[in-house]
Amino acid sequence: MNDKPPPLKLFISYSHNDKTYLDELLTHISTIKRNGLIGEWTDNKLVVGDKLDPEIKKNLLNSKLIAFLVSANFLKSWYCYEVELKETLDRLKNNECRIIPIIIKPCDWQDSELGEYLAAPKDGKPVSTYGNQRDSAWIQVINSIKDSVKKINSSFEKTTDSNFLFNKFTLNSDFANKLNDTEVIFQNRKKEKVYLDDIFVFPDLKKIKKNIEVIDRKINSKTLDKVENLPNKVLIMGEEQSGKTSLAKIFFKSYFNDNCLPLFCNGIKISSQKPEDLISKLISEQYSNQTYKDFISENCKIILIVDDYDQIKLNIRAQKKFLDNVLSLVDHLVLFSHTSIMYMETKFIELADFEQYEIFPFGNSRRCELIEKWVSMGEEDTIDVVTIHNETDTVMCHVDAIIRENIVPPKPIYVLSIIQLLDTTTPSDYSLTSYGHCYQNLIQGALSKAKINASDFDGYLNYSTQLAYFIFLTGSESINEKQLDQFKKEYSKSFVLESHEKIIKVLITSGIIKEKDGDYSFNYRYIFYFYVAKHIADHLNNESYKKIVEDLCNNLHTEKNANILIFLVHHSKNQYVTDEILLTALTIFDGTDPITLDISDTDYLYDYMDTIPSLVIDQKNVDEERKKRLKTKDEIQDEIEDTEEELEILTPEDENKIYREINRSVRIVEIIGQILRNRYGSLTKQDLKDLTLSAYSSGLKFLNFFLSATKDDKDQLINFIGSLIKVKSDLSSKDIAKIAKNIFVMLCYGTSFSVIRKIGNSIGTEKLLEVFEEISEENKNSPAHRLVEIAIHLEFTKDIPRKLLDKLYSDLEGNPIGRRLLQELVIQHSYLNQIEYKDKQWINEKLGIHIRPSNRNLNN
User: Fold this and answer.
1) Torsions phi, psi of 495, nearest 5?
2) Please, what sign has the CA dihedral across residues 615, 620, 626, 631?
């Protein structure tokens, strides 16, 4: 081994608007380059044909020193800040690199995440402010780089040559291309070809506890892409299209860049218990000019990644020997398998001592991360954060509306397909709404997997539609063999087909339907709802089908009925459907008026208002706050999924009626929102106003019911809350009473705020601002209606509507609850969106919301 350490790679991150400063830095580092201390890398070294994002990230991850040329341009650049800086800060936590912030122009860098680090030149004085002494500023920068090199090289004696193997081993070009192939073609308006690195998001995993049928905490799979975190034996399971292969490819690249020697294999290729021949073949296919002997002789970690391990051909004895033999040759074995392996007892038992994980579908956090990648694709280095947030929120709103309560499985492939369809595809069937078109394309994509001719689609569509409606009439969501035989007979009376067996086999192969233990059902709920609704839509001229629509509306509180009705909205423009929905809205909480939230509605809370602190806007990092909210939303949804079935069973009959009405209230608002967003171009303004008012009314009638109930029972509620506190507290009776009152007020206030936001988020769209404004004007004596308009405006325009806010705040004088709700809407908006400083000043002056100064330690 050489006594002198090799040159350290210096990655330089900068905004292209600051290229002059980059050129100056490159001039000044020429001496330390010549002395062999560093070798720099910037995106200037990219050549025609290079894949931008993968190449940049590869060099970033392979650099021990990262310099940031910090300016307002840098802080504004999404790619510099959100990708290069955030990736580096993650590496810093594991002491994998050192950073050198170089302040080149005056900017608010101290309030960024770089504010915690010592910067160059001295005291973070910007290079541009040195005037004629500019060279002395660069000398200070060079000295900082030299100091960092010394610190890293001080531990060189402990470093082996294997740390630099990425310079010695080269991947076969064809295999390298396969690693970044998405396998499904995606089209983005801003980029000609989409690669895996462009769209990949690390999924969450749940760790399976040994011998116990419970799951451990959720973890991000990214933790396993570092070899130091990787167990020797790992099994990662997932359903079809859950992203197993993509994760396996990304792991391969991460381990390769981490100076390990990974190998990639498909389980179906394993046909011998002796792995030497297999490994030799993989080496020759995946590496350039390397042999099995080269691999074994190197002082580095070898990692075998096996995809589709459930497809392995070996019997149980040979499988056991293969695992034992391969583990004697490699340092880590990572298996990917379909979740069905858990039911293959003979295979699964041999994996009992593996660390086992299962891939989670994409929750809100991961969906948002994926959408951010999509909207910034092709302009990562120039797009600003505000644009990313706004475009992401718009797409997220549509994606969430289509996925709904996971009726479409939120797997990466489905989320990407929906994004692409909304972004780049023109509907071919204009009888469907834009959302209906997305569902139809997802189904057609599934049929395409079975390689059926396009001319046969109509036959499969009709068969699926008739089968779905037949199952629907049974009152269940599946049928047995006997019922299937009955369906075949009825279908054959009305339609001609070649073979029931053939068509059912194709539907099973494509994933449209599934068979389990002799029962047949649709594989995903959205397919079942889509086809049932299509059948109803095709027969709405028949009175018996109109009765079905009426029953769906009357029993809207159940998930199945609500979703079929939503899909019916996507299939049909029939006025009868809209009229039934409007009629249903009138019957919800019958006898209760929509609340206006004027003084008389909330005066019973005023006695307790002194227990609530005044509202302020804290200076929060918008990106961190958005991530935190999404994480919280995921946790809440996980809790709901775990408990909603128990709630249905345990709720007493009288409370079930209330639960039913609350559910109907929520569902009708969501359904009307789907109509407004998908049909606004073909409905009259009066129809739009009627629908919007019905949505307002449904939500505000529930709120009136809730606040009236709390008003009537406020003393009992406060005493009950106090008794709960007393059980686990040593506080005095006076303090307990004060806390109980505060909780009571916040319960009423929090519910009011949630209802306002729910109505706005469910029906809001920038396309209908004129309608919302007219409704507010016609209901100007109802603070509730005007608060909903404010909520819609903030969420869907991202602007601060000063005129609307000023007028409503003034009109709410003497209505502390109304004013507080208005302030809260603005505060929550400010936490999730970038707000101009002048808008913050206006909010402080006009709305009485104090802006709390940042408490970040600005000292370096």
Assistant:
1) -135, 155
2) negative
